[in-house]
């Protein structure tokens, strides 16, 4: 097994280096320059592609607009995730609910145990839903609503949340049944729906503390945008992994932490 490499490698030059099959997880590759490289078969998953500030160039072409347009085509409703008014946000959440409902139907038709299968060390389908429970708790119950104890015990956090001081003792260490996961997830989905049903423009503009970085203010709108981003990114991961499982690429579930 290859020993993982970590640490500060800023400014390192790789010349005539063989990086075939190398894997970069939770790594900062911003500003990386590659010249005369063989990138055949490369697979890049970057949920935070540059958004206006910097380009992502391949052979001199900024590919970000093409990637975004293709993802919007593949996942109808995704283009609504940055809606800025109450009606737009309600429509955006309805699209999220429709999309996940279809995916849950797909999973129900797959072999038993599919929801607990991990692909390439990533979260299983059940763990993904549990993480979305935590995301809703973080950005709606904690940031916007100010609930003192916002977290459902079935939530699943990533490595960054743990390092940012999230009390991991709040969460179950066992493996809940999928019915329990679905129940927790349905409750959080309904919570967002109910909040959006009554939200007005004035509430969208209200300031809140960022739950991970309190020194940076967030508005209700920006918190809702984060929830929508979480929903669509993790749906993309889930569909990708379900495709892999159907192709026979699954492995036993693990507690992966490479996602946002």
Automatic annotation (TrEMBL):
<dbReference type="Pfam" id="PF12867">
    <property type="entry name" value="DinB_2"/>
</dbReference>
<dbReference type="InterPro" id="IPR024775">
    <property type="entry name" value="DinB-like"/>
</dbReference>
<feature type="domain" description="DinB-like">
    <location>
        <begin position="96"/>
        <end position="237"/>
    </location>
</feature>
<dbReference type="Pfam" id="PF00805">
    <property type="entry name" value="Pentapeptide"/>
</dbReference>
<dbReference type="InterPro" id="IPR034660">
    <property type="entry name" value="DinB/YfiT-like"/>
</dbReference>
<protein>
    <recommendedName>
        <fullName>DinB-like domain-containing protein</fullName>
    </recommendedName>
</protein>
<dbReference type="InterPro" id="IPR001646">
    <property type="entry name" value="5peptide_repeat"/>
</dbReference>
């Amino acid at each position: 097994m290859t020993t993982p490499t970590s640490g500060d490698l800023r400014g390192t030059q790789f010349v005539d280096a063989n990086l075939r099959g190398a894997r970069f997880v939770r790594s900062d590759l911003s500003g990386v320059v590659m010249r005369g490289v063989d990138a055949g078969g490369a697979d890049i998953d970057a949920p935070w592609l540059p958004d206006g500030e910097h380009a992502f160039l391949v052979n001199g072409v900024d590919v970000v607009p093409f990637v975004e347009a293709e993802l919007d085509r593949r996942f109808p409703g995704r283009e609504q995730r940055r809606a800025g008014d109450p009606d737009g946000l309600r429509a955006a959440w309805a699209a999220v609910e429709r999309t996940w409902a279809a995916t849950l139907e797909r999973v129900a038709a797959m072999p038993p145990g599919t929801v607990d299968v991990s692909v390439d060390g990533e979260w299983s389908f059940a763990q993904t839903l549990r993480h979305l429970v935590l995301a809703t708790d973080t950005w709606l119950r904690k940031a916007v609503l100010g609930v003192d104890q916002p977290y459902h015990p079935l939530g699943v956090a990533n490595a960054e949340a743990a390092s940012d001081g999230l009390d991991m003792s709040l969460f179950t260490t066992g493996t809940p049944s999928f019915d329990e996961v679905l129940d927790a997830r349905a409750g959080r989905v309904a919570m967002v729906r109910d909040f959006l049903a009554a939200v007005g423009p004035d509430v969208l503009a209200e300031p809140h503390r960022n739950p991970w970085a309190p020194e940076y203010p967030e508005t209700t709108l920006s918190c809702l945008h984060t929830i929508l981003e979480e929903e669509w990114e993790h749906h993309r991961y889930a569909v990708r992994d379900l495709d892999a499982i159907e192709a026979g690429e699954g492995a036993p579930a693990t507690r992966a932490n490479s996602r946002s």
